[in-house]
Predict the structure.
Amino acid sequence: MKAKNKILIVDDEPVNVKVLQRKLEKAGYEVRMATNGFECLDRVEESRPDIILLDIMMPDMDGVETCRRLKQNPKTETIPVIFVTAKMDRHDKISGLETGAIDYITKPIDMEETLARVRTHLRLETMHEENIELQQRLGEARRTAAIGSMTQGIAHNLNNLLGVVVGYLDLLKLRMNQPEKLEKGIASMEKAVKRMVNLVRQLSSMVTDEPVARIKADPAECVANVVNRATRQSEGRVQTVSIENNLPEDFQTFTSLETIETCVEHLIRNGIESYPEGTPAEDRPIRVSLNLLEEDGENEVEIRVSDRGEGIHPSVRDNLFDPFISTKNSVGRGFGLTVVKHSISHIGGGVTIGANPSGQGTSAVLRIPVETE
């Protein structure tokens, strides 16, 4: 059987309280009474009501001050309060509502109107509580799903990479007297092991909450370092990366060089891989632009990485930043954007991915707060 809603009536006129009490009890509510503000606070401490009908004009401590104290207490701040008043001044009504009351009823009390208002606000409060509970359940479900997805992705990727290593070990046993094939097999094993190490390192970066080291640096220099390093390491595939630096001359900000370089490196790699397989290096243009933005009095550095590849596939558009989301079949893919989102948020920034304004391909935008110290 559903428990009765509890209503606390606070009024220093016994006649008003008794009449209202009978009406509410007849409607199925459990009613308690208090005759002043101090008694109201004591009653609430003893047993939390679902709603309070609070008279404004009372001796010692009026209804407005009583409501203010209720709202200042974390244990009672969410209890709905309806003011009961004979005062019709607009300023008084606004002042009362600003203390945290949800409604007001004027005297002489219309019993049917009062009952209707009480029912409505109790129903709204129930809906609010159900909504909070639903959000908590959804949050737990998302966390569970995310953990399950990540665990499955980690197991799948590591198993595949270990399979590559085991497979080449078996081949090496058969090719002990063939130096060229032996060297090739060892190189493939080394590549697979590096992929596993990189995967573990990325996972480690996701779970740390330690403060990152910040120094005064030029973001454009960070980007240039990434492009130069990527060009050396990727067998010429990044020869068409161009940098457009629109930051002021000698611009610097306190930030994490490692975080910026990690994020830009992932975004450039994603841009390169967005082109159809087999596309020559010279036909894989990547453009990185840096701009200084001002919004609501705050300055941000925008780093935009744009490609002219195949764009965002519809199957991953809604969950780009989830771990192991990728349209590529190669082992170890699909974790870069997750790392980017976590890393950039760790220094107070953000990342968005959308269509390239030029009409073809994708643009990934990093926004980094400008800090002077």
Q: What stands out?
A: The longest helix spans residues 111-174. The two ends are 61 Å apart (CA to CA).
